[in-house]
Please model this.
Amino acid sequence: MLAMNAWFALVMGFWSILYLLDAYAKTHKRYGQRYCEFKERNGFQVTMAQVRCYSTCLNHIFLRIGQWKPTITRIWFTGGVWFGIIAMVSSIGLLTWTLVKSFSVEKKERVLTPVMPGVNLPLNQIVYYFSVLFVSGIFHELGHAVAAVREQVGVNGFGIFLLVIYPGAFVDLHTDHLHAVSSIRQLRIYCAGIWHNFVLVVAGVLVMSTLPTLLSPMYVTGTGVVLTDVVKNSPVFGAHGLQTGDYINALNGCPVNSIEDWSRCMGAIVYYPAPGYCMPIGKLQQMSHTIPLFVGYGGHPECCSNSSVSDLCFSYEIVSDANNKEKSYSCVEARPVTEQPRCQKNSDCLAARRTVCVHPFLDKSTKLIKIMKSKGKSVLYVGDPYLFGHSVSVSNYIPKYSFLPLSLPDVIDLFCRYLISLSGALAILNAVPCYALDGQYILTAFIDYALKVVLPNKGDRESLQFITLLFGTILLAFNILLALWTLFVT
Model:
């Protein structure tokens, strides 16, 4: 809630300052007239909580694209009609199902989730969110514009806007031309926006699924993971620890060839007993700096004096001649121990009578993690595995050349994820037969085209349109209110 209040104050402050600056510039004695002429010439408007820019400079591009290969574009936009009708019907079913599930006692389902920066949107991903919204909005409106030219409907101009914090675009079509064409041609125009949003979704899926192949000339995958970020001042950060660009091959002997392997190995570290290491008893006693057990930090017994950061307390069992097991403890340097073969019990070690399986003697929330790097010494981490997991970021893509950015593949991947999610959401949302959305016009044109023979009376068709639009509007409003209630209240 504090983050939401801070964002609200920041946004309102920005728009208030911008509105006052616009008012001051318009009334300036020397530059006021020039400023007003500039705004009129470039279609620039500033109102409270909105800035928009309108231009006709793209009209010739729309004309050229719309007149290219009429047969191909006709097939393309007819495909959009089929998608638009299916999406409209599906959106009603989806919102109805969501509303019913939301009031179900067994399980509550949500489809609509308002995205609020700083609330349920990470601040470091704001750029992805707004850039995808902007791209999706422009591509949506370009679809309308090109389809309009294809159907001989004039395009007056194209514009972009910023409403509060949300970017968008709009296309200004010649209304008289639009109403004069047939219903099927209107459908091609009205459905073109959500059709192009769906095309963006497909493009995002294709790029994501083929990204390793697309980037194969520059990045290697399947041979490990690379650290794209290490939190400064974290326990693993430093010249003798982990740094950005390190390649990781294994965690506690668990092979790591991908992010999936990384997650699996981290899960094994958290949920399964830590591995032990086979140590000769003589060498163990020679290396030992053991002191009598004492209660250390957090109430856990310790056998090291903590005078050296490289020492760690290990426990092991010695089997006597009478087959009695005696538990012993040794404080030894951790690195030489972790270089020995792994084990879980003494019998896993060769020459078991002269070798014991030593285990790190740690509390339940602390783990010893051996991080194997492709170059240099391995890194030993003793602490909370969750803290370690949150201290580093990894990627599947290892650059072939040093000048390639580590984060580029993940930037592309995350952008595609946002594109699939937001562009798909815009397609479904705009397909809802609701007032002020594309679904309103799609429904009107569809009823006129498909039911003109069944309902020859225009008044009957308008009544059906009104009832359907009213139902769709109420359904969408209830889903939005329920989503806001869930986000801010529950």
Residues 70-102 form the longest helix (33 residues). The chain has a mean pLDDT of 87.
